[in-house]
Design brief:
Blueprint lengths: L2 H25 L4 H19 L7 H24 L4 H7 L3 H12 L6 H24 L7 H23 L5 H23 L2 H9 L4 H31 L2 H4 L6 H13 L5 H19 L23 H4 L15
Helix pairs in contact: 1-4, 1-10, 1-12, 2-3, 2-8, 2-10, 3-7, 3-8, 4-12, 5-7, 6-13, 8-10
């Protein structure tokens, strides 16, 4: 990654860290699935009217929408409704990073350095420590892991969306992110109608003038503009021109902002176990991100190989076209 891309990634980290405070405030008033639909609905109509649909590989665009825009937020918002602390959610959701790296190896033919592997394993270990601390420190025991499990599923969905966004090869990452809002809104609202009922969303809108309603409205604006429009747009752009195994570990820094902001604005005080786990996670991130690739000897591929790519290999072969001339991540 270039220095410019690293700085852009850190900017997204800051925006997404504050996201969790905005989600917490919004969920005090809106039902979770209705909030997920509403955050995209406020952008869907102007986007559909004034923004041209991007040139994109439709199959992978739909994977991006399903993973990044729909299922991730259903799991995350439901977990936070079930008392998942905002700061802890910002940490556990970053399971998307190791999930993305693993999926990048499996589907994008990316390779990791040994330091990246060690760093991600350390980060996963820190998250495991968080889970143990929550289970042993709660009166409901193992049941306290349900919100954590839902948040981890949200992280897996995010990772799937990362891969879909990369393989979609949009001609304009921002327009693809904007149209994600359009396509994701109907299934999210349908889920709200089926699970929460039509009255839940209607009642929350009718009481928007209350104190909690106005705060939730502010949180909704932040989620839509900074969390989605700016943050997701920049993130998709970074994934489109860098290896997923290089970009995704940067998201492990989101909890630094998320936990700090939750302490400052929501009064959440993390336990010693949570703090230790967060330090381990961030340390693993640092090891993975700062690892430098070793040089790799170029090998000339047989001429025949370029003419024998089957149609079934097109999805993998197209990965090289994402950044022509760029070498893949090197061997361990």
């Amino acid at each position: 990654m270039s220095t410019r891309d690293r700085l852009l990634a850190l900017g997204v980290v800051f925006l997404w860290g504050l996201n969790f405070v905005a989600i917490h405030v919004s969920l005090e008033h809106f039902p979770p699935f209705f909030l997920a639909a509403l955050r995209f609905a406020v952008m869907a109509i102007p986007v559909a009217l004034f923004v041209r649909f991007p040139k994109v590989r439709l199959k992978w665009f739909l994977v991006y929408v399903a993973g990044f825009g729909t299922v991730q937020f259903m799991f995350l918002f439901l977990a936070m409704t079930l008392d998942m602390p905002a700061g802890l959610a910002s940490l556990v959701l970053q399971t998307s990073a190791p999930f993305t790296v693993i999926l990048g190896v499996l589907f994008l033919r990316e390779r990791m350095t040994f330091a990246q592997v060690v760093g991600l394993l350390v980060a996963v270990g820190g998250m495991g420590l968080i889970a143990v601390d929550r289970a042993t420190g709660s009166d409901i025991g193992v049941a306290a892991l349900l919100p954590i499990g839902l948040t981890i599923l949200g992280g897996l969905s995010w990772a799937i969306g990362n891969i879909g966004g990369r393989l979609a090869q949009p001609d304009d990452s921002l327009r693809m992110t904007l149209w994600m809002a359009v396509v994701a809104t109907p299934p999210l609202y349908l889920a709200s109608l089926i699970i929460e009922g039509p009255a839940a969303g209607f009642d929350s809108l009718m009481t928007i003038g209350t104190e909690t309603g106005l705060r939730a409205l502010g949180g909704l604006v932040y989620l839509s503009v900074f969390g989605t429009l700016v943050g997701a747009g920049l993130w998709t752009m970074l994934l489109s021109r860098n290896d997923a195994s290089r970009v995704s570990p940067m998201s492990l820094l989101v909890p630094v902002v998320g936990i700090s902001a939750s302490f400052a604005f929501l009064g959440e005080v993390p336990t010693i176990g949570e703090i230790l786990g967060a330090v381990i996670v961030v340390s693993g991130c640092a090891v993975g991100v700062m690892a430098r690739p070793r040089s790799r000897r170029r090998h000339r591929a047989p001429a025949e190989a370029t003419s024998t790519v089957s149609e079934g290999d097109v999805d993998q072969a197209c990965v090289g076209a994402i950044a022509p001339g760029r070498q893949p991540a090197i061997d361990c």
